[in-house]
Write a structure and sequence with these properties.
This protein is α/β, with parallel strands linked by helices. It has 9 helices and 8 strands. The protein folds into 2 domains: 74 residues, no CATH class; 111 residues, no CATH class. A 6-stranded mixed beta sheet has the order 3-4-5-6-7-8. Strands 1-2 form a two-stranded parallel sheet. The longest helix has 21 residues.
Length: 207
């Protein structure tokens, strides 16, 4: 007599449902009602009664384990996800637009003035990142950067070479960089000149 879990057998399952005797009894109506096995075959009825009480189908255990696993997954999915930490706000660098003009194929040219505290390479790179965000919707952006308003107002005269030596020096000393982005050619760079355009300059490509 087996005690414990029954070993599943696909062959026996199929054979029990397709045997000739089963088909004949069911089709001819000769199948005895439930619990009448003690009258038709007492020996088999006694064996089945003991067998069903001393052994268990292993599929029941598998079903219980799957149900428990599904419950654990369901509870895990219902747990609230940890709140995302807010991204630190990027410090905005204030600047004044002294002059602005449209570019024919889209975007604007600008002359801006920033605080002299930005007169470092790190400060100008941070300003370039801000200008990238500020001009993100513009096809092109040509920005000339100064740290003095009076010098910024001299730009047009400096381009036309209409300045005396003192004013030209003032213009060159306070023009500290440029930011250019051209969507047509893919050019995107910032030129930093912490000592003015009359001193060392460095062009840094941007992505």
């Amino acid at each position: 007599m087996k005690i414990g879990f029954r070993v599943p057998s696909l062959r026996k399952r199929i054979a029990a449902r397709t045997s000739v005797n089963r088909v004949i009894r069911h089709n001819l109506g000769l199948k005895a009602p439930r619990r009448f096995g003690w009258l038709t075959n007492p020996r088999r009825a006694a064996y089945n009664r003991v067998y069903n009480r001393t052994s268990k189908g292993c599929l029941v255990v598998v079903a219980v384990m799957l149900s428990a696993a599904a419950s654990v997954l369901f509870l895990a999915c219902r747990q609230p996800s940890p709140a995302k930490r807010p991204e630190p706000e990027t410090r905005r660098i204030p600047y004044e637009i002294v002059n602005e003009w449209p570019i024919p194929n889209g975007g604007y040219g600008r002359v801006i003035v920033v605080d002299s505290a930005q007169r470092t390479e790190a400060g100008l790179l941070a300003l370039a990142e801000q200008l990238r965000r500020d001009t993100n919707n513009d096809r092109n952006a040509f920005v000339f950067i100064y740290d003095q308003r009076e010098a910024a107002c001299l730009r047009d005269a400096a381009l036309g070479e209409r300045l005396n030596e003192a004013d030209m020096k003032r213009h060159d000393d306070h023009m500290i960089g440029t930011y250019f982005r051209n969507a047509n050619t893919g050019f995107h760079a910032v030129t930093v000149a912490p000592q003015g355009v009359s001193g060392p300059m460095r062009k840094i490509p941007l992505r």
